[in-house]
Design a protein that fits this description.
The chain contains 18 helices and 18 strands. With 492 residues, the chain is of the alpha/beta class. It has two domains: 265 residues, Rossmann fold, CATH 3.40.50; 208 residues, Rossmann fold (3-Layer(aba) Sandwich), CATH 3.40.50.2000. A ten-stranded mixed β-sheet has the order 5-6-4-1-7-8-9-12-11-10, sandwiched between helices. Strands 15-14-13-16-17-18 form a six-stranded parallel β-sheet, with helices on both faces. A two-stranded antiparallel sheet has the order 2-3. Strand 16, helix 15 and strand 17 form a beta-alpha-beta unit. Helix 1 packs across helix 2 and helix 11 packs across helix 14. It starts with a helix and ends in an 8-residue tail after the last helix.
Length: 492
């Protein structure tokens, strides 16, 4: 069984000679001004919340964009700060971007081009050459930062996500002796979808700078292999899941990411969460109602409009539940600088107002919508309060909300309604699996979740908890590192 101590011992025995470096766009800790005080918090990011326990176990350096308005106030002369603030476990190295760089690299190419291109949810990608040039510039900036931190040390560099498709190649060209791995947290589309990208060859060439390239599920690995096979000159070995280009081998593997199950399960039963549950039940006016929950960034891939329409249809078909069921939608606004996100926010507001007006009874309204970033304690309290949780993503690499909800239910209560188009659906087969585009089917599964017997709930939840406990974040990291250790690297 992989756990925090097991991973720490594994790294101590197998990788003691290597500096461990993580690279991501989003930082695990953000410093912001609140009045005249500086506060430190964690952003709403599945990637950072999943990997922070790993870094606390093994130490090393995490390189990320410093986005907080007080971030520069707390770093040293080398842009370093020790984190977490309550007990230093590893070094955070912040990289500074101008507003223009952030607009072109993050909001532009990463999230107006690559994000819709890879998710294939009928939102058209926007390709701008100026954004592409800025994306390349920022990848080069991060490569210089990584190389500066590594120096002449033996290093394992673990790159995160679609913001850095070019990074491994840039590092490899300057330092051929470091171990490079990248995890692509979002889906990889089929070749027909990816071929519209004007810079597809450069992106594929960049990603093949890695020794190991990971995706959540085998299907995304196959899509990547087929994309390379059709679009660039390389040898693709489908049996070994390996690509050879220019004499360099890149292994492609599925690694379903997860969470720190034991920590989440324990926190869910803590006294502070119990107190927070009582507070939220009172302030949200839940009384003795049946509570449904959705937790998402406000993003067009998450299927939130479809979820709201399913709630509308549920009350239309089953009016006996008016006044007895309340649905809480929680999560922060996201990428509001992009027009599609502005339009989505407006659509959700309109839907909520229409549905609440249609069914409200006195003070009761069917939907509460909280556009805010909840802290760990509040979020865990919401999971515990929810009789059912709806994860209706239209397309998702994994979705850790589903696993967090399961981890919170130590008493084996609650029902998970889960989109079949998430990576999590491959593991959490005892959830009520739904097609989020089928609003009628989603409404019917809400009814099934509410009317399910306690025995059936406990049986399903128990099975899912066993899966998440076994396939935890430490096992994920251990499998990635174990795969990398099969390589033999020349000495620098």
């Amino acid at each position: 069984m992989w756990n925090r101590e097991g991973l720490k011992e594994f790294i101590k025995q197998k990788m003691a000679d290597y500096l461990f470096v993580i690279v991501s766009n989003r930082e695990p800790y953000v410093h912001t001004f609140q009045g005249e005080e500086i506060k430190c918090g964690m952003p709403a990011s599945g990637v950072t919340m999943a990997l922070d326990p790993v870094m606390q176990s093994c130490g090393g350096i995490w390189i990320a964009h410093g986005s907080g308005d007080a971030d520069k106030e707390v770093v040293d002369a080398h842009n370093h700060i020790q984190v977490p603030p309550e007990e230093s476990r590893y070094t955070l190295r912040r990289v500074w971007l101008t507003k223009e760089e952030e607009a072109g690299y993050y909001y532009g190419f990463s999230n107006e081009a690559l994000w819709p291109l890879c998710h294939v949810v009928y939102t058209r990608p926007t390709f701008k050459s100026a954004d592409w040039e800025t994306y390349k510039k920022v990848n080069e900036l991060f490569s210089r930062t990584v190389l500066e931190e590594i120096g002449d040390k033996k290093a394992f560099v673990f790159i995160q996500d679609y913001h850095f498709a070019l990074l491994s190649r840039l590092i490899r060209e300057k330092n051929p002796n470091c171990i490079l791995s990248q995890f692509w947290h979002i889906p990889w589309p089929n070749p027909e979808a990816f071929r519209i990208c004007p810079w597809k060859e450069e992106i594929l060439h960049g990603l093949l700078g890695n020794d190991l390239l990971g995706f959540h599920i085998r299907y995304h690995c196959m899509n990547f292999l087929e994309t390379v096979d059709r679009m660039i000159e390389a040898r693709t070995d489908y049996e070994k899941f390996e690509i050879i280009k220019g004499g360099k081998s890149t292994r492609v593997r599925p690694f379903p990411i997860s969470i720190d199950f034991d920590e989440a399960s324990s926190r869910g039963q803590s006294q502070e969460v119990e107190i927070e549950m009582r507070r939220l039940r009172k302030t949200l006016g839940l009384g003795g109602q049946i509570v449904g929950l959705g937790v998402d960034r406000i993003d067009y891939t998450k299927g939130i409009p479809e979820r709201f329409r399913a709630i509308d249809l549920f009350f239309e078909k089953y009016p006996q539940y008016k006044g007895k069921v309340k649905f809480i939608q929680a999560g922060p606004l996201s990428r509001i600088h992009i027009q599609q996100y502005k339009d989505l926010n407006e659509e959700l507001t309109r839907l909520m107002v229409e549905i609440n007006f249609k069914y409200e009874r006195g003070r009761w309204k069917p939907i509460q919508f909280h556009r805010s970033n909840f802290g760990k304690k509040e979020l865990m309290a919401l999971y515990r309060l929810a009789d059912f949780c709806v994860v209706s993503s239209l397309h998702d690499g994994m979705n850790l909300v589903a696993k967090e909800y399961v981890a919170s239910r130590a008493d084996n209560t609650g029902v998970l309604i889960l989109s079949q188009f998430t990576g999590a659906a491959r593991e959490l087969e005892s959830a009520l699996l739904v097609n989020p585009y089928d609003v009628d089917g989603l409404a019917e599964n809400i009814r099934l979740a509410i009317e399910m017997t306690e025995g059936e709930k406990q049986k399903r939840m128990s099975k899912m908890r066993e899966v998440v406990q076994k396939n935890n974040i430490y096992r994920w990291t251990g499998k990635v590192l174990s795969e990398l250790l099969r390589f033999e690297f020349p000495e620098g």
